[in-house]
TrEMBL record:
Belongs to the TRAFAC class myosin-kinesin ATPase superfamily. Kinesin family. KIN-14 subfamily. It comes from Cinchona calisaya. The keyword Coiled coil applies. Keywords: ATP-binding, Coiled coil, Motor protein, Nucleotide-binding. It comes from the Eukaryota. This is Kinesin-like protein.
Amino acid sequence: ENYYAILAENQKLHNELQELKGNIRVYCRIRPFLAGQKEKQTIVEYVGENGELIIVNPSKQGKEGRRSFKFNKVYGQAATQAEVYLDTQPLIQSVLDGYNVCIFAYGQTGSGKTYTMTGPDRVSEEEWGVNYRALNDLFRISQNRESTFSYEISVQMVEIYNEQVRDLLSSDGLLNCVITIIFCFFLDLHTLGILSGSQPNGLAVPDASMYPVKATSDVLHLMNVGLKNRAKSSTALNERSSRSHSIVSIHVRGIDQKTGSSMQSSLHLVDLAGSERVDRSEVTGDRLKEAQHINKSLSALGDVISALAQKSPHVPYRNSKLTQVLQSSLGGNAKTLMFVQLNPEVNSHSESMSTLKFAERVSGVELGAAKSSK
Ligand code: ADP
């Protein structure tokens, strides 16, 4: 009950979100040192409640080695999953109000993207990431008996690897087919029939499989099927998952039982490929190609979001598969939240700086600051 009281208070943040320039929010999260890690020297000097962050380079003395940043929120190493979600929750309400919402996790491999989005490998309720909590809230709010709206919710899951989109819930292959058929048997087959005929316009992958869901557990089951499909294409799942983007899309259709008016919106949960730069002199062949595709798509995403934050008349959606696929859910009155993940270790200083510069660019702050200094 206490939790719901806090959520109600959160309405204030919700209102604040509505007024956001371009509806883009950037939250920065610093990963704690991991158990067994010897090095405790950190690049993080200050984390302010107002979203201020100061980073130091221990190998440079004085002013030169310090740099400050400002985001909508910064979470220090002690922040819990529940705290992080509290600031995300208003966006979930927005989905049921008819807004398209994209939530991204950006950062180098090992910086906590999957932890924030999903949680650790063996996840307890306390450690649930944004995905689980968002889905639970989505189903809870959509089943509110006082509302005159009735909702249908369905799920797609795709992976983008080397600029190719792959349907992770496709029923190709016997095993997947069996899993899917068994799964659908437990769902309402009628709903499936209705839904498979029409595509909400949230994700521009017209032929990616879509499944109706009635509860968080249905989505989690589908996500597991998706993860298994993802693993099949690679012997090392971790390697593959750090080099591809994964998108879980939740589509909502609602009809007001009283007035007959309808709404449609989507929530996209995007775990991006690792942003680490690859030393060109050290990699060749497939690895180089992967790295180039990742660079291209992450910088295209940065360009799109920063164009939206600047309210630029031209938004370059066509430059990557990632931005093409999410086009209808980025911009317009859609809302975007970017979790920027930082590894606090000293030897990650330069990688963390490039992550933060990306974050600064997408939050639209950098250009503003440059203008005022002229
Ligand atoms: P990424 O998805 O960016 O590659 P992970 O989410 O896999 O990174 O995080 C790397 C490791 O750090 C994992 O073992 C994860 O459980 C742990 N970790 C990340 N963030 C946190 C956190 N906030 N609290 C505790 N452990 C974390």
